[in-house]
Amino acid sequence: MTGKKSRHLVVYLPHRIPMWRLPGPSIDAIRRRARSAFTLHLPENERDFIRALPTAEVLFAWGLARRHVDKAGMLSWLHTPLAGVDRVLNPDLMETNVRVTSSRGVNAVAVAEHTLAMLLALTRGIADAVRAQASRRWTMNELDSRIPPLEELQGKLIGILGLGAIGRELAIRCRAFGMQVWGVVRNPREKPEYVDRLLVAGREDALIRRADVLVLALPRTPATEGFMGERRLRRMKSSAILLNIGRGSLVQESALVRALREGWIAGAGLDVFATEPLPATSPLWSMPRVVISPHIGGAHPDYMARAAEIFVDNLGRYLRRKPLVNEIDRKAGY
Q: Is 330's pLDDT higher than 70?
């Protein structure tokens, strides 16, 4: 048996929406990189995928379901096009020695721009104007006299909890708007030039009390589950806005609903939710100072091509036994 045929690479990324399928040029790039070392498998359905799993050394897939982990006895490395890996790191996979890498960073600019769009929709009354547009109502007087008033972002303090790729891109853009930017990171490090002040996790209460805008850009881990509950929501300024573009589980939604109803905070922009789709019974749908988007913050036409670029680069690194980009820290959970 040749060396090429003794090692197997499986690429399985089915999706009902064309934008989330791997483009042809990306498949060609993978084929070129893998040619000298691997037999490439491109299963067309789950049945063929399961047949290919037992000999797979490398897997490029959305993840590996718990029911399939025991079938992948030869698997050494899994790369996912997802930026967040909380749904990938299932308990069965965590018990193996399989290395996992993500596509962190491929959606950073899109999410940063989406976050700013939600913020502007709230501060400039755009969300209210769009609601009025549906009924052909001219609401200039209402918006001119609304509480909180229409405001500028310039001079406002924005706190970004989580300065990964998304947090970095958001910070850079907020500085361009003339905002004062504070960031919170898990481990101490030198302050980057795109933030005015850097805090370490555990010391974010001072930021929560002072921020005009608070952004959750954290991964989902046991430490961040339910991070924004009643205690922290009560510490925010009554004029402050909360934006969650991390994971829905970061926010205790019942506490958020109460905070909005009772005026603990001025508004919220939400792209992620504890349960998705957000149930039709959720009070968040009809709240006047809430902007909701259906977990589309990271969507853009080049997402899958960029994820494939990371995989192709990592495949070269893997073959050269070099460190992999975006390898998951199992203890941290991301």
A: yes
